[in-house]
Amino acid sequence: FGLILLGIYMLNIFFAYFRDYIVAYIGANIIANMRVQLFAHLESLSLDFHQNHQVGEMMSRMLSDVNRIQYLLTSTLLVFLTNIFMLIAISVYLLMTNWLLTLVAVIPVPLTILISNRFGIKLHFINKKLQETIASFSARLQESFLSIKTIKAFGQEDMEKKRVEDVIDGMTKLYIKNSVTTSLTVNIVNFINAAGPIVILAWGTYLIAVGSMKLGALMAFYMLLTYLYSPVQSLASMNIEVKSAMASVNRLFEYLDIQPRIREREDAINLGRARGHIKIENLSFAYNSNGPVFDNFSLEIKENEKVAIVGPSGSGKTTLINILMRFYEFDKGVITLDNQDIRRISLNSLKRNIGLVDQDPLLFGTSILNNIVYSSPEAGLDDVIRAAKIANIHDFIAGLPDRYNTMVGERGVTLSGGEKQRICLARAILKDPPIIFLDEATSALDSRSEYLIQESLKEILANKTAIIIAHRLSTVQHADRIIALDKGQIVDEGTHEELMESSPLYRELARHQLKL
């Protein structure tokens, strides 16, 4: 007999372990797929979405909100299945024992459901506000840590601490409100369910008095009530948890419901290697209702032509490159690459044909080698060194203890602006695209480094189409054509010599060394 009990006990442990493993496995995989899908969806959204949403907010939804859903799946799913089965089984047995007492016993059940639903709705809104506050806290932390140099430079540590304290204070109040409301709900439900057995005892005593029921039957029925009300209480608590977690579910779907403005057509074509003929006809574009950046703008750039674009800040120089890169969807007009509408070209093949060196050089928190080969993961070390030499960064890298395996820190924090810019330039050179956009690509370089890179770029850009945006005269004066842009319109165009004679705007820019 002892061995039988031991065997039953061991089987119970095995099945409990197997049950928990299955629930954990399913829940973890659902959450993993959810995170991957959410990340892929956020990546697919246009640049304007990312510019209007804080990184900390997005991270909070991927971490805090998804963790809340994971808890819901792994904890409440098992509780729900177990308690539903127990509730049905006990209810059937009690009905068979004494249907009249059973009907009296289940009177608190609908009231419990009503109470848990009513408070659950309130908790849903509390948790929605709480998750939003957690997201604000995450965004505030990220902004503070990324801006730590500025904070220290202006001695504003106390002000930043006060800002964080304010967010934490709001978060703490919501945590307390959530806990108090949950506790109140659970205690009300427990009180209602506690009234059930009292009524049963009173009613059963009456039935015994009139001879309709025996004492033993009443005691057996009363003991079984525990197994009836226990799952009811658990299901009521689970209902509260679900209502609370739905705030996180809704926050995730707020993002998932946003459709990318840049969407690849089903019949998108693979361009192959482009020749580099760009034509813009009657382009209109606006960021918002404040007015258009471009209105009926037209420009043609021939194959292998080097076009420099100059103009005051806000004239639309960088915006034009962003539109050509398909970071933004334009409102009207047609843009073609090699006579193909860029909206009909697959995004991958379009990006494959363009190399971009941005005015804000961004490096990943990995090695210099990984940062350079990011544009061409299949490239060998010899190709990387060649690109680095052209970008005038090889000698610097060779002097580091770990050479190309040197870690650069988050966002390249261990490097100077000029060093980061040259590494980004090497990354674009390694890609060897037929089209290159240089947006203030040498703005952080000293005069000697810029001169060396300009000499190297003459060779690199010889058989490429290039758009060069710069404030330095030395960067643009050797371009085949210079476009003077102002308020989204071409004011003048020509060579450096022609514009110095005919363009008041260009002369003004040149007079200030194009450092507006």
Q: How would you summarize this macromolecular structure in one to three sentences?
A:
This protein is of the alpha/beta class and 516 residues long. It has 18 helices and ten strands.
- Record the strand order, biggest sheet: 6-7-8-3-9-10
Structural class, from secondary structure content? alpha/beta
Unreliable segments (pLDDT under 50, ≥5 consecutive)?
Answer: none
The best one-word shape is elongated
Percent strand: 5-15%
CATH class of the largest domain: Mainly Alpha
Count of distinct strands: 10
CATH superfamily of the largest domain: ABC transporter type 1, transmembrane domain
CATH fold-level topology of the largest domain: ABC transporter transmembrane region fold
Number of helices: 18
Can you describe this structure?
The protein has 516 residues and is of the alpha/beta class. The chain folds into two domains: 2-256, ABC transporter type 1, transmembrane domain (ABC transporter transmembrane region fold, Up-down Bundle); 278-511, P-loop containing nucleotide triphosphate hydrolases (Rossmann fold). 62% of the residues lie in helices and 11% in strands. The chain contains 18 helices and ten strands. The chain has helices at residues 2-44, 47-51, 55-97, 99-105, 108-146, 148-153, 157-209, 215-256, 317-324, 347-352, 368-372, 381-390, 394-398, 417-431, 447-460, 473-476, 496-502, 504-511, and strands at residues 278-285, 294-301, 306-310, 332-337, 340-341, 354-357, 435-439, 465-469, 481-486, 489-494. The strands form two sheets. A six-stranded mixed sheet has the order 6-7-8-3-9-10, with helices on both faces. The chain starts with a helix and ends in a 5-residue tail after the last helix. The mean pLDDT is 84.
